[in-house]
Design a protein that fits this description.
Elements lengths: L1 E2 L2 E2 L2 E3 L2 E3 L2 H9 L4 H8 L4 E2 H7 L5 H13 L3 E6 L5 E6 L7 H18 L6
Antiparallel strand pairs: 1-2, 3-4, 5-7, 6-7
């Protein structure tokens, strides 16, 4: 990628990116990561609470996506030493910087639905 006439190469976790958008999409891409981040905005949720809010995600996929988001530093996972285990997820401080992006994506999704489809329920 060229920035101010100079080539930019990003090296993150031993992976090379030739464009910052490529890096961002690698971290946030896929069907579920944005949805998980959306529900964690301003909220701390347990696994089962997330699962109830994202009704069409499988348990296996939710576990995988949560691990990837935690590894990327976008969410935090807090484990309480009790039986049965209690685990809570929330946005990390850095993950909270995604709020304007998530809001813009949400607005776009609603605008698109209203232009090319319909809102079925509120």
């Amino acid at each position: 990628m060229l920035k101010n006439g100079k080539s930019v190469l990003l090296d993150v976790n031993s992976r090379r990116y030739y464009c910052q958008v490529e890096l961002a999409m690698d971290l946030l891409g896929g069907k579920w990561k944005g949805v998980i981040l959306w529900y964690l905005q301003g909220d701390t949720l347990r696994f089962t609470e997330l699962r109830k809010r994202i009704v069409t995600i499988s348990e296996k996929m939710l576990i995988r996506e949560l691990r990837e988001l935690e590894k990327a530093g976008l969410i935090t996972r807090k484990v309480y030493p009790e039986v049965p285990p209690k685990v809570e997820y929330s946005l990390s401080d850095f993950g909270q910087t995604l709020a304007p992006l998530l809001s813009a994506v949400s607005d776009f999704g609603m605008s698109y639905a209203l232009k090319f489809g319909q809102q079925v329920e509120e």
